[in-house]
Amino acid sequence: MHIVVVSVNHKTADVSLREKLTFSESSIQQALSALINQKSILEGVILSTCNRTEIYAVTDQVHTGRYYVKSFMSEWFDVDIETIKSVTDVKVGNEAIHHLFKVITGLDSIVLGETQILGQIRDSFLLAQSEGTTGTVFNKLFKDAITLAKRAHAETDISSKAVSVSYAAVELSKKILGKLENKKILIVGAGEMAELALQNLVGSGATDITVINRTAEKAKSLADQYGGRQVSLQELQCALIESDIVISSTSSQEFIITKPMMQDIMKLRKNKSLVLIDIAVPRDIDPEVNDIDLIFNYDVDDLKGLVDANLAERERAAQVIYTMIDKQVISFVDWINMLGVVPVITALREKALRIQATTMDSIDRKMPNLSERDRKVISKHMKSIINQILKDPISQAKEVSGSENRAEELQFFQEIFNITNEVESIKNNEPEVRRSKNSFVFNPEQ
């Protein structure tokens, strides 16, 4: 059993390729089902955000597991397998565990320490759990990861001040146009990223805000919450004519703002410059609008260059969190190793208890006049002897769990006590790993 993560992120692929390898919200459930039906895949979780697409899998073999995850991505996105190989970062075992902990704590984000990824991973895991594609291993791993991230944000300054892609977009607007108090700002979209941008805009002094969304009710609700106004999607071009700054973040699979549209709009703006910031993946704004004079167009990759004023503090906090991660990796690996030892210890205890029961039956036959009290005393002392005899072997078995040669040593241990058949029987009667949904089920309220 091995843990594998295959990742496409802002470090391995540019935005034009990442948007091709993004799972739409409506397709995740179907994708999870297709993933778990691949050979070698025992458990699976899919994370798909604006900056990364990652597939976490428990596999029966490392090499075949990696192959079938990449093959699944190639088939699902209709992208050549060689392209998938060239833009994916693959981590296995301890490195995969460390990667998850690093991502969920915000240490692998474009903006160090951002908190949005915690909620995204939590939601991805809960969806996979509800779809039955997680089991004993991932139910434990992702619960540990979520708990670790909450501790990291609570105990360090890594997220003491809001920093995210949305915040970076607002900071970029201020760098270009200065103070935002007298600027007309248009938000296209009404999702989480749009709301984060609004929070930071209002915090930076913006007051003239318009929200447009395909669903008018969501746009109105968001606009009302932040003192803005809502207009319909049909009024997009009119809103673009009047705006100074446009921040777009929708889930559209096609461009919302196109080059021909902006060519017509800029003629009506009478040489007035316009800042367009696209924080959506796939992109909302056609990159060809860069060819039009007086348009300053930026996408999520452009935001990488922004340096947050609190970066030095966050870097120091990050070092503390790395120490926390290292300890949590060790703890989880110890737990994983113990999974292989538990059937051995169980078999040893059960064999000892069978011997004790057989011996008590023999005593009852040979000494039928024993009182109930005498039987209890004898039984109690026999169990005490068994526990004392088993104490050292069980302790040794637990020590073996951390050995590099634990498979061979555990096999030798089983042969010494002649419990190989009992161990196999216990393993065969355990629930299939990926269907063990009731083990370590994560409570979202924790």
Shape: elongated
The amount of helix comes to 40-55%
What's the N-to-C terminus distance?
28 Å
- Low-confidence regions: 431-446
Question: Count of helices?
Answer: 16
Q: Overall mean pLDDT score?
A: 88
- How many strands, what sense, and barrel or not for the largest sheet? 6 strands, parallel
What fold name stands as the CATH topology of the largest domain?
Beta Polymerase, domain 2
The first-level CATH class of the largest domain is given as Alpha Beta
Rg, rounded, reads 29 Å
| CATH architecture term of the largest domain | 2-Layer Sandwich
- Which structural class fits the helix and strand makeup? alpha/beta
Give the full name of the CATH homologous superfamily of the largest domain: Glutamyl-tRNA reductase, N-terminal domain
Work out the number of β strands: 10
Strand order of the largest sheet: 7-6-5-8-9-10
Overall number of structural domains: 3
Order of helices and strands: EHHEEHHEHHHHEHEHEHEHEEHHHH
Strand residues, percent: 5-15%
Textual characterization of the structure:
The chain is α/β, with parallel strands linked by helices and 446 residues long. The chain folds into three domains: 2-155, Glutamyl-tRNA reductase, N-terminal domain (Beta Polymerase, domain 2, 2-Layer Sandwich); 165-308, 3-Layer(aba) Sandwich (Rossmann fold); 335-368 and 381-431, no CATH class. Helices cover 54% and strands 12% of the residues. The chain is built from 16 helices and ten strands. The strands form two sheets. A six-stranded parallel β-sheet has the order 7-6-5-8-9-10, with helices on both faces. It has a four-stranded antiparallel β-sheet with strand order 2-3-1-4, sandwiched between helices. Strand 8 (245-248), helix 12 (259-268) and strand 9 (274-278) form a beta-alpha-beta unit. Helix 6 packs antiparallel against helix 7 (136-155). The two termini are 28 Å apart. Mean pLDDT is 88; it is low at 431-446.
